[in-house]
Every structure is written in structure tokens, then in C-alpha cells.
Amino acid sequence: MTTPGEQPASADGAVSASADEIRDQLPADLDVTGFVGAYQFPDNSRRRLPAAIYSLVALICLVLWFAQRNDTASLVNDGLLYVAVVLGAFATYVFTSSWKMSINEREALVRATQAVGFAVGHASAQQVWRGLRSRPTWRVFCYSAQEPPLQRGLVLVDAVDGRIIETLVEDNPRE
């Protein structure tokens, strides 16, 4: 039996919701109605802060191991030395892969337009990473301005120094 204002329960005990009740919604950062401007791609140089934290933890582990390694009653053992070495190596890798990007997606689109050699209609840029040290690169895909497009091109633009890494231009296949 239900009291006024109470939702009736089903056979399994779950309470059913009314039709006008909001049950699920998108987080605020995914809500397109609150869109304010162009998306700003995060810079890879943000990796320097975690690299500094990894280095600090590695240094603390190394100091603890060095200060307490001969103490038999201590909880410090050679595992701390191994952690310090591995974490220090990882911190070095993260720091060396924290490239400062000087080319944004708009500049990459301009450089790609210059590289393909035809008037560009539709184009899109995607940030990717190349190599072992994750060098940021813009992958720009563009179509010629004719309708339908007669040519298409793929251009890789280095996001650190802006040089053109690779250009591929071909006729747009007809369907």
C-alpha cells in the first residue's frame, strides 16, 4: 500500500519514476548547449609536472634506501632502490617527451593548404603522436574546393617546429 505522493513499487521492490522526472543527464563539460568557443588542444608540456613528481618520489626512495639500508630492524630493503631506479628512468622518459607545441590546429591547416598545392575546401586536423618520445604532430586531411572535390590530400605537420613531415596528394576517387 502506498501513501499519497509515494511511488508504487514493482514486484522486485524497485520504485518506478514518473514521466516528468529527469533520470539521466550529460555532464556539464559534454553539454553542447554550453559551448563557448573553439576547443583548445592541451599542450604536451603539461607532462613536465608529473615528471617532476616521479623524480621527487624516486629521490625520496633513493634517500630512504641509502639512509636505512644497513638497519636490520628497518622496513627498507633493496626494493626501494629498484623502485627509485625504475621511477627515475620513467621520469626521464616522461620529461623528454613533454614537447612544447608551437603550432596549433589553425596554423597546421594553413601550412597543409600551402603544401598540397590546390585550393582547399573542406579540411580537418587531428593531433597524433609520432615516435618513441611521442612528438606531437598534426594530421591534416583536406579536399579540393570543387564540388564534388577532385583532389584530396593528407599532410603531416610537426606541432613543435611547424615543418611539413609528409604530404600525399591524389585524385579523389569517384563512387
Outline:
With 175 residues, this protein is α+β, with helices and mostly antiparallel strands. The protein has three helices and four strands.
Written overview of the protein:
About 15% of the residues are buried. The protein has a four-stranded antiparallel β-sheet, covered by helices on one side. The chain is about 30% helix and about 20% strand. Among the domains are: about 45-95; about 105-170, Nuclear Transport Factor 2, Chain: A, CATH 3.10.450. With about 180 residues, it is an alpha+beta fold. Helix 1 (about 50-70) runs antiparallel to helix 2.
Strand count, sense and barrel status of the largest sheet are: 4 strands, antiparallel
Quantity of strands, as a count: 4
Q: Average the pLDDT over all residues and give the rounded result.
A: 80
User: So how many helices?
Assistant: 3
Task: Tell me the span between the first and last alpha carbons.
Answer: 65 Å
- CATH topology name of the domain at 105-171, in short, is Nuclear Transport Factor 2, Chain: A
Q: What structural category arises from helix and sheet content?
A: alpha+beta
Q: Architecture of the domain at 105-171, according to CATH?
A: Roll
Query: Any low-confidence stretches, pLDDT <50, length ≥5?
Result: none
As a whole number of angstroms, the C-alpha radius of gyration is: 28 Å
CATH class of the domain at 105-171 equals: Alpha Beta
Q: Bin the strand percentage.
A: 15-25%
Shape: flat
Helix content: 25-40%
What string, H for helix and E for strand, traces the elements in order? HHHEEEE
Strand order of the largest sheet: 1-2-3-4
